[in-house]
Specification:
Blueprint: H1 2-10, H2 13-71, E1 86-87, H3 98-103, E2 115-122, H4 134-137, E3 150-159, E4 162-176, E5 182-186, E6 188-191, E7 200-201, E8 211-214, E9 227-228, H5 236-250, E10 251-252, E11 256-257, H6 268-281, E12 284-285, E13 300-309, E14 314-315, E15 322-333, E16 338-345, E17 354-358, E18 363-370, E19 375-378, E20 385-387, H7 389-393, E21 396-403, E22 409-411
Parallel strand pairs: 5-8, 5-18, 6-9, 6-19, 7-10, 7-20, 8-11, 12-13, 13-15, 14-16, 15-16, 15-17, 16-18, 17-19, 18-20
Antiparallel strand pairs: 1-2, 2-3, 3-4, 4-21, 4-22
Length: about 425
């Protein structure tokens, strides 16, 4: 018995089992801690991905909204048609396209639960002119009410409960339209005065002269004047010499050109841009004519109207000339009317009669452009057309829109 007890006392097999169990417990603890750390890092990675997705969604919505502004800038004339608040459920043409936005993302976080919103608001107060605040700005009009060519755009994206909000001040970019810088370009010119006086000032105090051109070619015994006055009978050279002698007194300097190009003064795309600009400014007239003072404005677009202005009215000013564009119809300026800017008749109906008349003491200080074979009449009393190249420099349309530097940022809320 004693011998057995001594042998059992020297046996250490139980310590090996205890050591093994201890090591297993330690390894299990390390594994559990490692698993928890990995799980935490995975969760953090998911949160970061979700936040990034929400940010990208907001940024895409903002870019899409700015693109819409570039195509359709809501100027001061858009009071009755402001930009709406947009979400992924909106179908208005001025809102970003929800399907196109969603298609930009392959992330699993952009599913049916993803949301976005945009809003366009004016910076129409001193407090919000260069500073954005939800409390101050979200009640502002959804168009450029103060006419400074700038609007706040707010975009928000939400993905799996993560929300990111971006804002930026967006400015309209104007595009100068490329027009021939002529004093008068028309199909035919009829000067209704044979006196020794300047009817058309083709220089206007400028260092360069503006072209005076007609698309027709004078012929003997013509029934309608081509270049100011009818050519009589006899020899063509003698008749032309007599005509030029009179024109030397009535057009200063007499730099007239016949057989001018039949190409329109402005492309269809350019006319469409000017039309859109007039609509945005509230100076577009789909039918009929503007009021007695309605020819004032950067771009006045008359779709179809036979318009007459004979009162003592000044339209625009030397420092801020404008443009009146008549698509179809006619324009008569008489009395003591004074128009600063460019008169452009696009002659979309391809008329051959009288398109523009400038009579009496009326003066266009800028230029007159008439497309096609239509006639311009001038000269019943005194000077009627005077070149001003600055008027052509001011013919501009809304071309695009871009973010004002240092205004793009993320906000909370």
């Amino acid at each position: 018995m004693n011998r057995m007890l001594r042998r059992l006392a020297r046996d250490d097999g139980g310590w090996a089992l205890f050591t093994s169990l201890t090591l297993m417990v330690v390894m299990l603890g390390i594994g559990t801690a490692t698993f928890g750390m990995v799980d935490g890092q995975t969760a953090q990675s998911r949160v970061g991905r979700e936040k990034e997705t929400a940010f990208n969604l907001a940024e895409a919505a903002m870019n899409a909204q700015i693109f819409q502004l570039a195509r359709d800038w809501p100027a001061a004339g858009s009071a009755g048609n402001p930009y709406p608040a947009c979400t992924q459920d909106s179908t208005a043409s001025r809102c970003p396209n929800a399907a196109q936005l969603t298609a930009l993302f392959a992330s699993p976080d952009v599913g049916t639960s993803a949301q976005w919103s945009t809003s366009v608001r004016d910076n129409n107060t001193n407090a919000t002119q260069n500073f954005y605040s939800d409390a101050l700005t979200q009640s502002a009009p959804g168009y450029d009410a103060n006419g400074d060519g700038q609007l706040w755009v707010r975009a928000q994206g939400r993905a799996r409960g993560r929300t990111r909000t971006l804002i930026a001040l967006v400015r309209a970019q104007e595009q100068q339209e490329d027009l021939p810088r002529g004093t008068l370009i028309t199909g035919r010119l009829d000067i209704s005065n044979n006196g020794n006086k300047v009817i058309i000032d083709a220089q206007g105090g400028s260092s360069e002269s503006g072209l005076v051109a007609v698309r027709c070619t004078p012929v003997l015994l013509e029934s309608t004047p081509c270049l100011g006055h009818n050519l009589g009978g006899g020899l063509l050279a003698t008749a032309l010499a007599s005509l030029n002698s009179l024109l030397n007194k009535q057009i200063s300097p007499n730099i007239t050109q016949t057989g001018y190009s039949s190409a329109p003064a402005l492309s269809a795309e350019g006319r469409a841009r000017l039309k859109a600009t007039a609509i945005a400014n509230g100076t577009y007239y789909a039918s009929g004519c503007p009021s007695a003072a309605g020819l004032s404005g950067a771009i006045v677009y008359i779709e179809n109207g036979n318009c007459s202005y004979t009162s003592n009215t000044q339209f625009n000013s030397p420092s801020a000339p404008g443009m009146v564009l008549v698509a179809q119809g006619s324009l008569y300026l008489g009395g003591t009317t004074n128009f600063y800017g460019v008169v452009y008749h696009a002659n979309e109906a391809a008329m051959s009669g009288t398109a523009v008349q400038i009579q009496g003491n009326a003066v266009v200080q800028g230029g007159v452009l008439v497309d096609g074979q239509a006639t311009t009449i001038a000269g019943s009393s005194k000077l009627n057309i005077r070149l001003d190249l600055n008027a052509y420099d001011r013919v501009r349309s809304y071309g695009s829109a871009g973010v004002v530097q240092n205004t793009w940022r993320e906000i909370t809320g």
